Structures are given as structure tokens and as C-alpha cells.
Protein: Methylenetetrahydrofolate reductase
Amino acid sequence: KVTEHITNADGKTMFSFEILPPLKGQDIKSIFDNIDPLMEYKPPFIDVTYHREEYTFKELGNGLLKRQVVKKRPGTVGICAAIQNRYQVDAIPHILCGGFTKEDTENFLIDLDFLGIDNVVALRGDAVKSETYFKPEKEGHQYASELVSQIQELNNGKYLDEELQNSSQTNFCVGVAGYPEKHMEAPSLDSDIHFLKKKIKAGAEYIVTQMFFDNEKFFAFVEKCRKEGITVPIIPGLKPIATRKQLNMIPHRFHVDLPDDLIMGIVRCKDNKEVRQVGIEWCTQQSKELIKAGVPILHYYSMGRSSNIEAIAKAVF
Ligand code: FAD
Structure:
């Protein structure tokens, strides 16, 4: 369990990272090639994101449309099982409300349990492209806090089917997302933290944050959480900027601010090789300061570029 790893580390900051399943059509080797060089830094766990199905409609003529499922990155559970088997570290699948009925969720959790996967990060998921706002499945969950509750029910042997009550119990340690710069839909940071607390009350045992580029925002967030009575470990999520394009993409997609010094450092770069170096140096400084502040784990978003993370880990761990 993530919480046990933190306790066993005895105050020493650990290294961990998140990967995306390979794109449909690629093989698992691309993932191993990304993970292999990072194992030297002894991550106690590796997160694997989950990507929801999207639909497109193909015209068949005569006004008929055929619905086609597009899933660019399937395979989260399989990748987790393969990671645990190959590296003997905990793999943590992300699990979503979106696209899942409660029954789907229960079956997903049963699969994980059979595979010896004892940690999950419970998330709502974003709206799909065809929706303006997030819409749950008819028999699904609206908020991550409800998903956390369902996982805890299963941990207590409570299945959806009445007849199965008090059958075998699962033993999941649940993490949830936190947003130092607030979630994009939240009217304020205070209200977002109010609902974050609801996820903890429902049974989540730790928080992983959205990426941020200004440590002060993280420190202020942690302080606010503690004031609200949230006592669980808060793990900072970090991402080194790797391309000039990300200067626009990251604030747009993740709703986070980039500090002016970082922006101008990147704007002045000749090419992406220089941008990569600026991104690594910025993230290395952030990491060193966070270690000094005593964070339990530094969690890196690799987004398919492990060589950047490796350079930071080498400088920091
Ligand atoms: P929630 O905690 O449900 O919150 C969503 C919004 O609703 C917030 O604004 C919150 O303030 C508000 N809210 C919560 N409860 C209530 C309530 N009872 N009443 C009113 N408002 C409420 N997405 C993926 O698709 N796959 C992934 O693998 C993935 N991994 C992620 C990992 C991390 C660490 C993070 C930070 C995000 C990840 N995401 C992933 C993105 C995430 O799914 C989105 O940010 C999503 O929009 C919100 O998810 P959540 O779990 O934070 O939602």
C-alpha cells in the first residue's frame, strides 16, 4: 500500500512516476523502454493512467450513422499486471467514474484484486469531447467521492448483489486527486478543498496533486488542507516542460499557471533541445525545494518522456 511505503520510508522522500498505456497499435516494449532506466531510482510504485472510450460517428449513406468506439490507449489493467510481474513494484491503475456503471466498477476492482493489485487512484474523469460537462453513466458515479465509497464498500465485503454480502473482501488503498490551483470547474479553491475532504472522509488515504510549476502554490494548498483537517499524505505531482508547444498546451489543458521566469526562459530558447534543458533545470530546483520541505514522495508525470525524468532523478535522488 502507498501509505505503508510512506511509513516505511521513515521521512525520506521517495521517487515515483506515472506512465500512460501505449497507444493502440504499439506494443508493451515501448513502456518497458521508458520504465527500465527509471528503476535505478527505486520507485515504490508506478501509476498507470486510464483512458476513457470516446465515440465517433461514421456515415453509412442514406442518412445512417454507425457509432464507432475510439479508444486510443486501452490496456491499463494489463500494463499494471505486467509491471508488477516484471519489476516487482506496485503498479497503481487509475480508475474513473466516467464511462463506468457501478457494476463495471465492481468487476474492474475484482480483476485488480485477482491480479494482486492493492492500490488505485480514484478519479471522476473529464467530459468527453462530445459533452460540455461531465456526464456520468446512468448507473455510474457523478463524483470521485462516490467512487471512493464504492471501493470502501468492497473492502468491507459489500457487493452490489445483495446475495453476495460479506463474501471475500478486497484490500485497496485509495488515492485521490488534489488541485493546488483548484480544479477547473470549482468556483474557488476553498470549495474544491471542501469536496476534497469529502473524498478523504469516504476513505481515501492519500492525495496526489495536479502538476504545478510554482512550489508556493503547493505549500499554500497543503496549509489550507491541514487547516481544513485533512491529515493524509499529500504527494506533489511534477512535470518538466519538454517542448515549446507545451507552453500553451499545459495551461490550456491542465488549468495551471506557469511562472513568468519559466515562460521567458522557454521563450528565449532556440529550439526544443534548449527547452528540454530549461524544463529539466526548473523541475530539478522544484524537486530539491520540495525534498527540503519534507514531502513523502515526488511523483513525476512522464507523459511518455522518461529521459527527462531520469535526468531530474539523477540530479535529485
Ligand atoms: P472530483 O473529485 O469528483 O471533483 C470534480 C469537480 O467537482 C471539482 O471541481 C470538485 O470541486 C467538484 N465536486 C466534487 N464533489 C462535489 C459535490 N458533491 N458537489 C459539487 N461539486 C463537487 N483523468 C483521466 O481520464 N485518466 C487518468 O488516469 C487521470 N489521472 C489523473 C491523476 C491525477 C493525479 C490528477 C490530478 C488528475 C487525473 N485525471 C485523469 C484528470 C481528472 O479525471 C480530472 O481532473 C477530472 O476533471 C476531475 O477528477 P477528480 O477525481 O478530481 O473529480
Notes: The chain has a mean pLDDT of 95. Residues 49-50, 52, 94, 96, 121, 123-126, 143-145, 177, 183, 185-186, 191-192, 195, 198-199, 208, 210, 237 surround flavin-adenine dinucleotide (CB under 6 Å).
